[in-house]
Design brief:
It is built from 11 helices and no strands. With 366 residues, it is mainly α. Pfam families: Iron_permease. Keywords: Membrane, Transmembrane, Transmembrane helix.
Amino acid sequence: MLEVGDALKLQPKDFADRVIIALAGIMGNIGMVIAFCAAMITWVALGPKYNWSNNWQLWLNTSTALQQTLAVCLLTLARQRHNVYVENCMRSIFRQEAELEYRVRLLTGQAQPNPAVTVQSITQDGFARSLDWYAALMGSGYGFALSGILFIVWVVIGKPMGYSDDWWLIIGTTTGVIGTFNAAVLRFTLQQEERTLDKEYDSLAAEEQAVFKRLGLPGVHHTHQYKETLMVRLSLATSRLCATRTAVLATMLLILALLIGATAVLWNETAQLLVNSVTMILESFFLIVLIDAHNIEATGQRMRLHDILIRRLQLLVIARRLNSVHSPAAKDSLDGSLPSDAKICRSKSLTTSSPAASCQALNAVD
């Protein structure tokens, strides 16, 4: 069986992993959100001292750009570590389920194909569908190509503009506006995905708990819950607030207002810096919230998958014991005399269509 590891805290593999875990823990918590807000208040308070100068605004742009780069890297690496665990856990679940069906079919003599499973489509309104479409576009090769085209256009117009300050600000303003909206959309779509997964996990857990109840076993349902400390409550509240459609709409309206205001003053240097500064603040804030939300939601998802694996192993133990009691050669005569737990196992639809297919699937996992 594959070793899936600790679902609550992913164990580091090397020094680089430890650094990633430490930085993600620092960056992705409500304390960082509070520190970020305090830093922004301090920056605004220093504005009069420096006459709201362009250099004063550039300090913010530089610091938030560095923070965003680090946040995106941490979010990507944390997501990759989570996906590795999920993949290993799913493979292990499939292995146990394939062996479980194989053993139950040996006991019962059944060779009928399992019924087809239909995945119901998700009902969404036009607003949610449009955000999903936008997220899919920006996260695809088309989004990458569009980014490349915009960068090439910016480089090409550099010489005609004399590589001036306005030319430098164009790329910062463009990426700030697009990045802010992307971060808001990403938080919204991730929350929708999490809700869909929660419904599926709850449905599967209910079915499995019914099986365990008929078997007279307690089963496993240890879905991870964070301790309800003040910081955790603030973290969850902030994450959920930023995942609402109201937050996305407010972000869109703010960006639109900034663009209209900058257009009214013909996109002078101060206007570009203002648009850049506001969008960079919002994007940095959303990225911190994204890391925080990922840390919480990914942990919960891993715990649910781990619970599924444990329940499969419990059922497999029962099937193995029954196989050791009843000879496979006598399986044709066992249907009317099997213990009740074997009959319950027999009624559970699993993954493959026949004992031979189960063996092939099991060997394929190896």
